[in-house]
Amino acid sequence: DAGVTQSPTHLIKTRGQHVTLRCSPISGHKSVSWYQQVLGQGPQFIFQYYEKEERGRGNFPDRFSARQFPNYSSELNVNALLLGDSALYLCASSRRGEWADTQYFGPGTRLTVL
Amino acid sequence: GDSVTQMEGPVTLSEEAFLTINCTYTATGYPSLFWYVQYPGEGLQLLLKATKADDKGSNKGFEATYRKETTSFHLEKGSVQVSDSAVYFCALIPISNDYKLSFGAGTTVTVRA
Questions:
Q1: Residue A42: which of B42, B98, B103 has the nearest Cβ?
Q2: Gap between the Cα atoms of A34 and B54, Å rounded
Q3: Which residues are B6's β-sheet partners?
Q4: Is the minimum CB–CB distance between A31 and chain B shorter than 8 Å?
Q5: Angle at B112 between CA B109 and CA B113, to 5 degrees
Q6: What is the biggest distance separating any 2 CA atoms in chain B, rounded to whole angstroms?
Q7: Are residues A107 and A22 in contact, defined by beta-carbon separation less than 8 angstroms?
Q8: Partners of residue B36 in chain A, C-beta under 8 Å
């Protein structure tokens, strides 16, 4: 079975630009979560979606937004990029997004903002 | 708020040595606790988990016991191998929030042959 896939693998942007990151969950999984992992730190929760509805949001500015599509894939959008947005962005999927579910992580998208 | 504190690395060991990575948590009630591992060049993988006090999670020779009295979830392995070299993250899901994983900063472990 295919795992969680993310695209692109790497991305270089300049300050002020906009970026869209994509995630495809494991087949049968209806929940997708996004995390930001700055170098040398643990991942920080950004969003969770379940059945196309936002279920939770972490402590991130409104420049960050996301959505989930009918096929349960998801996009993370970041506007007006700042240098501090440089990080590894991780997507995780689970069946229902509940505590009893294991979250399976993708390999991440490495974003560099110059 | 709810948070996890884990021992700082890096940790360097010889093969067959005993590994302990300390993890303590701060949370309201009884969170679910996890250890994730990130091997070089790979994504995060769930290593083990425990959902209530005194539960012991185990996988691939690693163990961790949910200690309510000391709010701890220390990771242990009796005999490490070179292939255990990775970054290990302790994490929790609070009882009030059933989806948001809160991670520690990670501990880098290097096992030398």
A1: B103
A2: 30
A3: B23
A4: yes
A5: 145
A6: 44
A7: no
A8: 105
